[in-house]
Design a protein that fits this description.
Distance between the termini: 27 Å
Order of helices and strands: EEEHEEEEEEEEEEEEEEEEEEEEEEEEE
Structural class: mainly beta
Shape: globular
Oligomer: single chain
Number of helices: 1
Number of strands: 28
């Protein structure tokens, strides 16, 4: 028997100044959130079977205010007349409950676990986008920039699961039968769409262990998702200073996915060698496609269109580690490769978009002495995208982290950490170096720590990062706090 009640509150505020084509933009967001939930579960033996009863109920409410100065998208919002600013208010509430009953029964090498459940979700979403003519004058926009949505989803499911285990073989098969009834209504526009569907989504996993060192696993499953209320609104939403988005559809967008993966693991505790290699392939069939229109400033207007399309994703991930006892050190090498293909409208033109990326990493953890530990973590990555077979430039990024931890005396700790970042996005490679120093003293026979930290010793003033999206790159330059000292006291009961 287990019952847990949770109360959560989050008050998040953010403020950023950014320079976009020599224009300084001030963006402020306020995101308070409240959540209350209760989770109940119990397992009772009845004869030779185990009965599992579970229940989950939650209520969430959040409000978000977004203010941008000077105003963006004035050509759409104010007949190309410059705006003092944009102001947007969002109100979101969500009720969720799911209740299920399951049975587990053992039959020799088989374990059977049928399960029946019911899920209900009700969400409400309201938004209003205002034009700011000055600091105090708010002018509401028309209904194209207001949302008053109500989303209801009812799901009933029956899952038949079976697990087989004998000798070196393990296999699991799940056959969930799902019934969905979804409705979305915009009260201000008096528009409503609904969807009713039944489908089976099998999930198969096979595991073979020929000996104590090797494990081979194959996994295949289908999934089907309906877009949620956060990604379906009939009128425009201002996401940030550069994105105005509307996902309007006469049907509820859905995505059907096929996922296949295989992995090989090697574990040899005697020789302290551990390795794994994973290959994943997935394909998703979407019922809508996005049309993204961008201007010279990088601002984008996003609309959704009803058009079937398919996206594909391939990835390979490998890792190997070795512990060398004479050096008291663990050495780890990792590598990854990713390819993704999809279709998207760019400025009203249907385009084939491909994304590529690979990475290589080295990690070293060493404890040569009882009072000394050393760590290094280095990563090299490359990203590239292409549109209609036309390649954009390759972006290379390096990160190197080095740390030294000292325990000179009992209850005393001294730590050094340094980080180096560089990329080739601009003509001059962007480089940033950080160095931090920490001293901590733990008072004997207490649960109190006193910590003194000197952060950003080199007084680095800027940090530049490159973000990769489906068809473009974005460079972020963040102004850093100057070198500073912190004194912290930590205690626990």
């Amino acid at each position: 028997f287990e019952n847990a009640t949770e109360f959560r509150g989050n008050w998040e505020n953010s403020h950023g100044l950014l320079n976009n084509l020599n224009e300084t933009i001030d963006q402020r967001t306020r995101k308070p959130l409240w959540l209350i939930s209760n989770r109940f579960s119990t397992i009772r033996p009845i004869g030779k079977e185990l009965i599992n009863i579970s229940s989950m109920i939650s209520w969430q409410q959040s409000q978000e205010n977004l203010m941008i100065n000077p105003g963006q998208f004035s050509d759409i919002l104010n007949d190309s007349i410059a705006l003092y600013g944009n102001y947007q208010s969002l109100d979101f509430s969500r009720f969720f409950t799911e209740n299920s009953l399951g049975v587990t029964k053992q039959l020799r090498s088989f374990t059977i676990y049928p399960k029946i459940g019911l899920q209900y979700i009700s969400q409400n979403f309201e938004s209003n986008l205002f034009n700011l003519l000055d600091e105090n004058q708010f002018v509401p926009n028309n209904s194209n920039f207001q949302n008053d949505l109500n989303w209801n989803q009812f799901k009933n499911y029956l899952n038949f699961g079976i697990h087989y285990r004998k000798n070196n073989w393990k296999a699991s098969l799940n056959l969930p039968l799902n019934y969905f009834l979804i409705s979305v209504r915009d009260n201000s526009l008096n528009q409503k769409i609904s969807k009713e569907k039944i489908f089976v989504l099998p999930d198969l996993s096979v595991n073979f262990q020929p000996n104590t060192y090797w494990i081979i696993n194959i996994h295949a499953f289908l999934n089907h998702d309906f877009v949620n209320i956060n990604k379906l609104y009939f009128s425009y939403i201002l996401q940030n200073y550069r994105t105005l988005q509307r996902i309007k559809s006469t049907v509820i967008p859905e995505a059907f996915g096929q996922n296949y993966s295989t992995s090989i693991q090697y574990k040899n505790p005697i020789k302290s060698i551990f390795a794994n290699l994973n290959y994943n392939f997935s394909t998703i069939q979407n019922s809508v496609i996005y049309n993204q229109t961008m201007d010279e400033s990088g601002n984008s207007l996003i609309d959704a269109q009803e058009k079937n399309n398919t996206s594909e994703r391939y990835s390979v991930i490998g890792k190997i580690s070795k512990y060398i006892s004479k050096l008291k050190s663990t050495f780890t090498l990792s590598v990854n490769y990713l390819t993704q293909r999809q279709k998207q409208f760019l400025n009203n033109e249907l385009s084939d978009i491909e994304n590529f990326g690979w990475g290589f990493g080295v990690k070293i953890n060493s404890n040569p002495l009882d009072w000394l530990s050393i760590g290094y973590d280095g990563k090299l990555s490359m990203i590239q995208n292409q549109i209609n077979a036309i390649e954009n430039r390759r972006i290379k990024t390096q990160t190197h982290s080095f740390s030294v931890n000292l325990y000179p005396y009992k209850n005393h700790y001294i730590g050094f950490s340094t980080d180096y970042f560089t990329n080739n996005f601009s003509k001059n490679n962007q480089e940033t170096t950080f160095l931090d120093l920490t001293y901590r003293f733990t008072f004997p026979k207490t649960k109190i720590d006193m910590e003194l930290s000197w952060n950003n010793i080199f007084n680095s003033d800027l940090f530049t990062n490159v973000l990769s999206y489906s068809f473009y790159y974005s460079e972020q330059t963040i102004q850093l706090r100057p070198s500073q000292l912190f004194l912290k006291v930590k205690f626990s009961f």
